[in-house]
């Protein structure tokens, strides 16, 4: 079984036959025991964190997700510029940490997101050589993820802004790929956790 933690209430994962934990089910109560896909809130960690208004306990969700991945195996998804990597001493792409975990940078556009959305993945338990194929795309990008108010709803270099819901949603093909990664993760349950 694969558990997916910190999903939106309308998440595509809920249609994929996995054990989903949203805000109502409360992922902080997940009992452990199997590999996970973790999507902890990123607004307190991203490039624009100075403008975010996260709940007081929100940063701890990402820290707990890292501890769970190191203990049970799995994958965490966060924005490319997430400060979580520095705070939790997560390995940069091309390096491996003491838990056998590594990071890769992908673009959610490759799996069907309308805009380029560079994303870091932290993976424990699945050797990099065993990752499922990554569907790199070179097609023209037609949309952007915009933040400055001056761009709101306006074309930018002929591209359109994605909606907030589209910006936050995980493309279904990426969700399926992340589940495949988690299925390949094997971690000793008694492994020491940072």
Instruction: State the shape.
Output: globular
Indicate the proportion of strand residues: 15-25%
- Count of β-strands: 8
Low-confidence stretches: 188-194
Describe what you observe in this structure.
The structure is a single chain. With 194 residues, the chain is α/β, with parallel strands linked by helices. The chain has one domain: Rossmann fold (3-Layer(aba) Sandwich), CATH 3.40.50. The chain has 4 helices and 8 strands; from the N terminus they run βββαβαββββαα. The strands form 2 sheets. A 6-stranded mixed beta sheet has the order 2-1-3-4-6-5, with helices on both faces. It has a two-stranded parallel sheet with strand order 7-8. The chain is globular. The C terminus is likely disordered.
Q: What is this structure, in a nutshell?
A:
The chain is of the alpha/beta class and 194 residues long. It contains four helices and eight strands.
Topology (SSEs and partners):
Layout: E1 3-5, E2 19-21, E3 36-38, H1 58-72, E4 74-79, H2 84-87, E5 102-107, E6 118-124, E7 143-144, E8 160-161, H3 164-168, H4 172-183
Parallel strand pairs: 1-2, 1-3, 3-4, 7-8
Antiparallel strand pairs: 4-6, 5-6
Summarize this structure as a short list of keywords or feature phrases.
single chain; 194 residues; alpha/beta; Rossmann fold; six-stranded mixed beta sheet
């Amino acid at each position: 079984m694969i558990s997916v933690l910190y999903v939106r209430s309308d998440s595509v994962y809920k249609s994929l036959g996995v054990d989903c934990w949203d805000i109502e089910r409360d992922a902080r109560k997940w009992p452990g025991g199997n590999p996970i896909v973790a999507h902890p809130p990123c607004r307190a960690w991203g490039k624009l964190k100075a403008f975010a208004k996260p709940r007081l306990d929100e940063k701890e969700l990402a820290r707990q997700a890292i501890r769970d991945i190191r203990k049970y195996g799995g994958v965490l998804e966060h924005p490319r510029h997430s400060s979580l990597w520095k705070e939790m001493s997560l390995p940069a792409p091309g390096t491996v940490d003491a838990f056998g975990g590594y990071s890769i940078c992908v673009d959610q556009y490759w799996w069907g997101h309308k805009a380029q959305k560079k994303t870091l993945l932290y993976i424990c338990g699945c050797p990099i050589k065993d990752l499922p194929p990554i569907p790199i795309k070179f097609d023209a990008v037609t949309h952007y993820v915009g933040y400055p108010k001056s761009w709101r709803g306006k074309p930018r270099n002929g591209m359109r802004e994605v909606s907030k819901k589209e910006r936050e949603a995980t493309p279904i093909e990426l969700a399926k790929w992340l589940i495949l990664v988690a299925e390949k993760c094997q971690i000793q349950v008694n492994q020491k956790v940072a």
